[in-house]
Amino acid sequence: MTVPNEVMLITYGDSMGENLHQLNHILDAYFAGAVGGVHLLPFFPSSGDRGFSPMNYTTVDPRLGSWHDVDALAEKNYLMADLMINHLSRQSAEFQDYLQHHDQSDYAGMFLNWDKFWPANRPTQADVDLIYKRKDKAPYQEITFADSNQSKVWNTFSEEQIDLDVNAPQAKAMFRTTMAIFAKHHINIVRLDAFAYAVKKLDTNDFFVEPDIWKLLESISSEAEKHQLTVLPEIHEHYTLPRKVSEHGYYTYDFALPMLILYTLFKGDATNLLNWLAASPMHQFTTLDTHDGIGIVDVKDVLNDQQIDFTTKQLYERGSNVKKVYSSATYNNLDIYQINTTYYSALGEDNRAYLLARALQIFAPGIPQIYYVGLLAGKNDLELLEATKEGRNINRHYYTESEVAQEVKRPVVRDLLKLLRFRNQEPAFDLDGSLTIEKTDNAHFTLIRRNQAQTHTATLTVDLTTLRFSVQADNDVLTLETEQENSND
To answer: pTM of whole model > 0.90?
Structure first.
């Protein structure tokens, strides 16, 4: 299918309002025209990781609503949903059946057995060291079957997330069924969560294993195409990996942009950013914020190590309630290479800096995604952080409708919504069009977007010394309230 070229909101089903029905109402009431799509973070029954430990894909978590609510959301928005291609919940019916019936289970081959994966007398310590890991021990979990036998299964992430054998017939059948269900309920894009971890192969690091990973992606994509679905592989690693995916003709994410824009604004130097934008593909999704922290590994070699260190140090010095401990094991962080903060707080809750960051995202090649906290220029939620001791919850505030109604009155949010509506309505942002960069010096530049027919032009002119910027479309200037102010509200 053709992906609609409109701003996509990233949200949980209970983060703006208590459920999907309230979310739909809030989007209609407060964000019409500003948001054209919704990445609905996992809304299935789950045993952990805020939905990312799915027990099945056939039902909607009853706390959030029903498929009827998903259908209603799809009436005015294009939708993205997650397929956790690497794993399934420990509490899933399939895994529980495996525990109960051991090798006699119909699902015995569905989960990747650690012991059977390795030849005799392996793994050695060198084998384990080679694996690209998310924790400081070998990625397996010991299990005990009902018949008292014991074994080990691959377990890349949390204890609740048991790795699948993606080549097993049972796993393939689940993928096919899930995509058919998604299509039935008007979901347009399938996000392949943790995609690069899905293929395990002897004598590799088990991360983005080529050529096997391409066979998996082709298999999933061809099944998706039968249902007019588009796949979006999620890969948090060196930028060359998503670029490879893009070169194979798939949509990808630009996860380098969040740190890159922070560096640009903190340093007052656009050199790295402009080089990056000039080489970026149009058919991608851009982010500044997601349900996780700000990724560092994604920007390696886009920024050098000294520039990354500078940006990180500035984050902790300039950011509002951005502390190193919030991204540490003390706050239950699996990935220490992410910084937990809202993007607004990362920029010291400075309205002009925040709006400039969003303007840069909007003019960058790709379709902008905006996380629900970012949509409301939300601050770090220390109360939720301390109540849960979960680092990522600093950026996961639960908004009631009355809070949303208040937040959208803030000038910074009004201006942001104006920018997003401009992005959705302006033909110059054609994904088959072009980006031209005009640079006066390292702190002064203009980004020019044109549609393919070159009948429409949009320009962003930036002064990094003052953080002032102007947006113009075919000689009409977009007026923003915050440009009349000095800083914060």
So the answer is: yes
